[in-house]
Write a structure and sequence with these properties.
There is one protein chain. This protein has 132 residues and is an alpha/beta fold. It contains three helices and five strands; from the N terminus they run H-E-E-E-H-E-H-E. Strand 4 (96-101), helix 3 (107-119) and strand 5 form a beta-alpha-beta unit.
Amino acid sequence: MKITRKKQMFIVPMNSMSDVAFLLLIFIMLVALINYRREVKIDYPEAREAKRTSAEKNLEIWIDSSGGVYLDGLPASQGAIEQAVSEAYRRAPDTRVHLIADRHTPFRHVNETLSMLQLLEYRVVSFVVKDE
């Protein structure tokens, strides 16, 4: 007795492919818009003259008006900042440290960070201000 099998044709439904492509496009566009940079909300001081720097090799130290210190948007201690600056210098000596302090921050809080950078003999430090 001979058994015969019918060959079945597999068909991929193409009706919903445009829907899938559209949803994939929306997903990619939304992911591309996400800003991964963490910022601390501060009131920037003003300056008469400002120089623009590239944002690729920056290490940002934020100081809020109450004296809280943040490293790249995350709360940090002076020891953690010292270690991060040392590591950044060891990886790339031309890394620029951006010191971003609130307009109403007492200078003693800024001076603590500057003293630490001075002890590390770090020479590439910028103060970030608001354009006029």
